[in-house]
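Why do we bother with a discrete structure alphabet at all? Because it lets us treat a fold like text: something you can write down, compare, and reason about line by line. To make this less abstract, here is a complete entry for Carotenoid 1,2-hydratase. Read it the way you would read a sentence in a foreign language you are learning: slowly, and without expecting to understand everything at once.
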Amino acid sequence: MRRLELLSPRPLRGESWLDALPALPDTAGAYRWFYADVTAGEYSAVFIFMLGSLFSPRYSVGAPRGALPLQHSAVNFALYHRGRGVRWVLSEYPRALVCQGGRELLIGRSRLEYTRDGRVCLEVDEQCAPFGGAVHARLELQPESFSTEEVQLVPGVPHYWRTLAPRARAWLSVDSEGVRAEGHGYHDTNHGAELLGGRLPGWHWARMHGPEETVVEYHLPGGVAPLRVTASARGTSCERWPVRAEPLRTRVTGWGLRVPERLTSGPGVGTEPRLLESSPFYARLEARQGGLDVMGEVADFRRFHSPFIRWMAHFRTRVERQA
């Protein structure tokens, strides 16, 4: 396949890790989230720290009226065992704090930290949503590859993506479940100056961990060339690849959302993925085969802004009045 554009023209081996958190959003409608996932034995987990929460019906309604992103900060955590959901956390708070000279983000009792020795630590101390028991979870990432430069997802539209640790050693502990596991981790960030679901209606993406290399593909609407990040001990690159000539084969979930029949990221996985999460506007999928592990997401943010979907989202969220 011919490559269209090399966005990171040289391997990034030897570049330093982030010294501090990127700038946080401060205007109505803006957002930033920090995403991390881990595959460790029979377990998978996802941690997301959100400022201007994409899952918040309150921010969806309030942003056009001037609501600010830090007023709708949120922590999301999901734990899966053999493809089955075990715990779900989604808690929204009216503020977030940055500490430790810009290295640490606090939302409620949970925190994200970039340590001085180059690790990423995420700790969740929460209650399951909407009603449920306590969850105490920790993920520590030791990057094995370095970050890419920030990429604008669609030309002329203010939404951006950056892989921060596309391939990492990962240690997961969930004290409330008695889980201790080690595996592969992934970490990135998205941010934008306007609500998703307008000029950028949605996307689907997937990351594949192989024995020596991680590949991430980001597919965008409107004929925009997809992005591909390749990361290993040899370096990290980010490229745009040609749009597929043949249409992507999809299936329809019970909520009517179209998701890929197969998760592909680089060589891909040749089996139908399992649905880890399924909703009218969002799906999370996973597939494992032959030493390859793929996790992906599909999002249609236009659907989320419908009054009915916003109403449904209340039932998967806890709202805390004080941080």
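What the structure line is telling us, in plain words: The first helix runs from residue 57 to 62. The chain has a mean pLDDT of 89.
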